Amino acid sequence: MTSNLVKISGIVVSELNKSYSYGSEDFYSFDINCFRLSGKADRIHITISKLHLTGEVCNIGDYVYIIGTFRSQMYKHCEEGKKEVRYFVFATDICLNEVSDIENQNSVEILGEIVKIGKHRVTSSGRELINVDLKVCRDYAKYDIIPCVIWGRRAIAISRQNKGTVLKCNGRIQEKRRYNNETMNVTYELSCNEIEIIEPIVSKFA
Prior knowledge:
Layout: E1 4-12, E2 17-22, E3 25-35, E4 41-49, E5 63-76, E6 83-96, E7 106-117, E8 121-122, E9 128-137, E10 143-151, H1 153-159, E11 166-180, E12 183-199, E13 203-205
Parallel strand pairs: 4-6, 10-12
Antiparallel strand pairs: 1-3, 1-5, 1-7, 2-3, 3-4, 5-6, 7-9, 7-11, 8-9, 9-10, 11-12, 12-13
C-alpha cells in the first residue's frame, strides 16, 4: 500500500536554485502555483534531484506536472534560535506540459498514524472539521509529520479515535496564511476529501 504519493501540476513562479547536496547528488528547489477550481492559487515548494531535471524544465512560466511525496522538515534559525517546520513536495518525476489535460491537479494520498488530534469544531458557516497530525513513514527509518484537516461527518468519526489510529487520507495540499500584526506566516496542510480508518477498525466514511 502506498504511504505517500503526490500528483500535482502548476505554473513555475520562481527561479530554479540549488538547495543542498547529499554525497555527490545535488538538489534544487523552485515554487509552483497550483490553481484551485475557484481560481485561487496555492504556492507550493518543490525540491528535486538534479538527476530528474532536463535543461528545458523549470523556467518561470513553464507548466509542469510532478509526481513525488509530501514532506516536512524542521529548520532552526541560527540568529533567533527559533524552529520552523517547512512543507514541500519532494519530486521523483517531472515533465513539461503544453496542453493542460491535467490542469488544476493536486492529488495526495498518504497512510499514517495519528500523533496529534485536535478538537472537533464547527465553522461560522456551519461546516464541521477536525485537525490531526499524521506520522507518515519513509525509507531509512525517517518520517514526516503531515497536518491534515478533515471535514463533515468524517470529522465526527475521527474525533472518536485516539493517537495511534492509522488513517489513509486522500486530498489536496492547501496553503494557509496567518497574519500576526504586520507579519504573515505561511504553512500548509492536507485538506482531506476521503478518509479510511485502517487500524484499529476498518470503516469507510466517504
